[in-house]
Amino acid sequence: MSMTITEKILAVHAGRDHVSPGDLIEAKVDMALANDVTAPLAIKVFKEIGVEKVFDTEKVTLVADHFVPNKDIASAEQVKIVREFARQQSLKNYFEGGESGIEHVILPEKGLVLPGQLIIGADSHTCTYGALGAFSTGVGSTDLGAIMATGEIWLKVPPTILLRYEGSLQPHVGGKDLIPCIRDSRCRIWP
To answer: What is the pTM of this model?
Structure first.
């Protein structure tokens, strides 16, 4: 039985030969990601767990993203929490100031996202890295705090849907334009 790329990535990270949709697995994470909005709660959870150091100082990435520049004192305090934690933990991948920006652009630009990786981020757009051949998904900050401590996550292997489109695209029509077709009865979907 052949596996999808998602299943292959998750099987490798779970130390298994094979996984199937619906399986519950524990997997090792290649990258744990948070930003200036989501990291402070993850840091709080990490500290509550009681470990001294993150699981790997090269695999925890923090980015000043949403509050650049800081809009007020509260946002500046959020960034300060992240900065202090990054320095305390000696994180290799902490981005702020002239290196900050959109986290989901910075990581690929810096070569931190590679095909076959398992990337978990406290941001709903983390799934963007699927476009680079990685398995990536967003989680809550509480989950990310535990991942920063352990380097592992439990997941339910997701199903995959194969879509085949007939015909050709009109000018200026791309993949995102086809997504609504999933709910359109005129589209043919193969399992």
So the answer is: 0.86
